Amino acid sequence: MNFAEITKEEAIEKLSGYKKTSNEIFELLKQYGEAKGHKRSELKSKIEELYSSVKQEAKEYYKQLSKVSTAKNYITKALFGPAIDDIYVHISSVAKNRVGSRDFESAVYNIGSYAGHWLGFLRNSKSE
Q1: Can you list the pairs that 101-110 forms with residues at least 24 positions away whose Cβ atoms lie under 8 Å?
Q2: Helix count (H) and strand count (E) of the chain?
Q3: Contacts of 97 (CB under 8 A, 6+ apart)
Q4: How far apart are CA 62 and CA 39, in angstroms?
Q5: Which superkingdom heads the taxonomic lineage of this protein's source (predicted)?
């Protein structure tokens, strides 16, 4: 993906995916809180896997976008770049092995919240 020229549709797709993953993790966290034994261990692994995938991808995008000195379009400069900044900055210090902690739940909430916040701006944007 060329971040200097990301399209509105690509940005919406990516942020929608983050929001969906955040919701999925919350559903799994509910089950995790009630599970015992092997089921609990399986749920923890799945939660860690989903969280790690978002965190790693956001980190890569964050690093790439910070190198884009002159973003070529409005979507990257004003919407997708700030969305990735918000998501990554708010989850970067929370490790995947913190499943069940307040910090972890807050990080998962931040993924969905910031993705949703910026999706609203993207969807209402007139710029392509």
Answers
A1: 104/51, 105/29, 107/51, 108/22, 108/25, 108/26, 108/29, 108/51, 109/22, 109/26, 110/86
A2: 5, 0
A3: 48
A4: 34
A5: Bacteria
**Residue 59 token pair:** 């980190």
Residue type, 76: T
pLDDT one-digit tens code per residue, 87-128: 999 999 999 999 999 999 999 999 999 999 999 999 998 765
- The one-letter amino acid code at 126 reads K
In the chain, what are the domain boundaries? 3-124
Judged against a pLDDT cut of 90, whether residue 58 lies above it is answered with yes
Tell me if residue 24 falls in helix, strand or coil: helix
Give the pLDDT confidence of 5-53 residue by residue, as tens digits.
788 999 999 999 999 999 999 999 999 999 999 999 999 999 999 999 9
pLDDT value at residue 5: 75
Spatial CA neighbour of 116 closest among 104, 126, 108: 108
